[in-house]
Amino acid sequence: MNEFLVVTGMSGAGRSTAADSLEDLGWFVIDNLPAALILKMAEMMNLPGAEMERVALVIGRGGGSSGSDYFEGLPDVLRALRADRNRVRVLFLDASDDVLIRRYEGTRRRHPLLTRGVEKSIADERRLLAPVRDMADLLIDTGELNTNQLRSRILEAFGDESGAASMRTSVISFGYKYGLPLDVDMVFDCRFLPNPFWIDELRPFSGLDAPVRDYVLSQPETTDFLQKVDGLLAGILPSFEREGKSYLTIALGCTGGRHRSVALAEALGKRMREHGQEVSVFHRDVDR
Fold first, then answer.
1. How far is 154 from 22, CA to CA, in rounded Å?
2. Which of 1, 31, 177, 249 gets the most CB atoms within 10 Å of its CB?
3. DSSP reduced 3-state for 132
4. 168-210: pLDDT as tens digits
5. Beta strand 247-254 with 168-175: parallel, antiparallel or unpaired?
6. Quick count: other Cβ atoms within 10 Å of Cβ 104?
7. What percentage of the chain's residues is helix, strand, coil (to nearest 5)?
8. Closest CA relative to residue 28, chosen from 2, 9, 49
């Protein structure tokens, strides 16, 4: 069975970084492929002598007069590719409009769908890609990720294929003051817990440091919260796996994303690993 990873998403959200990372991981990467050619390429992989077992198709940079032809018919192509007994996953890279605008202003590059300014082009592209976004197996919000952090997410998701048949779970901490992550399936609000920020000797530390971690985890409310979340996840994660979900992202948020949510994300990840689940933990705002 051939394996395809379709990498797409908003222009400026990091497709080039994802492509480079996948190539480093041994994927055969085909960049800038129009959707109309995907099925032809898949046929070639079935020819005798073809040795491309894992192929990443990076679809995004526009062509023609408007660039929309690169995406035209992509949902139907993906359904046809899956129907032909191929293993097909879709990675969608996204970021908020404000972030994408800043990136284009910083690089002075022309948006591939440029119509009447960058903001209008981003809105047009977002509408164009909405059906593909809905089909994504994994959505990564790159708005708060640097290049190395995005590479790390790609490595966690696609680097070790030994457990490819099982669902990969990510636990992310974040700060509400910086906005909700775009790429999460479940969100838990940790702002009801006592805040180490208001304790002078704890404020300089993060939830990765023992003083803050011990303070947060010593609260009775924390113990009760972790037990209930752990029990909830133990009950529903097997159902997600039975339904064929490949990736699940759980987010825990506090005010600034530096103390409570960080400590809780680490603790929850540890509990889930003890249950035999494959879990990666990321902290979006810990260094702010």
1. 7
2. 249
3. helix
4. 899 999 999 999 988 899 999 999 999 999 999 999 999 999 9
5. parallel
6. 19
7. 45, 20, 35
8. 2
